[in-house]
Amino acid sequence: MNSIKEAPYISGTDALYYFAQSGGGYDAIYLDILNQIEDRKKEFEALNYAYVDNEIIVTLNEIDIKYSGKGRDGFLWFNHEFFRVGFKDSQKSPNINDIRVQLNAVGIYTLGIKSLLEYINTQFLQGALLKGNTFPITRIDVNMFIQHNFNYLRKEMIVSKKKNHSANIAEHSSGYELETYYVGKKPFKLRVYNKMQELKNASEVKRELMLNYFGTHGLDINESIFNVEFELHREFLKEYGIDTIEDALERSQYLFELGCDLIKIIDISSLSEAQLHSSNRRRAALLPIWEFIATHYDSKEFMQITTPLEKIEKISYRYNLEDAKKPLKRVITRLLMHNNAPTLLYFYDLLQNTKEDYHLRCEMKKLKQAFIHPIRENFAEDLKAYSNEGLQRFKEKLDKELSQMDDEAMNGSTLYQELFQKYQDIHREITLRGLEHTPTPLYDVDDEEPF
Question: Which of 59, 69, 86, 174 could disulfide-link to 100, CB 3.0 to 4.6 Å?
Answer without folding.
Answer: 86
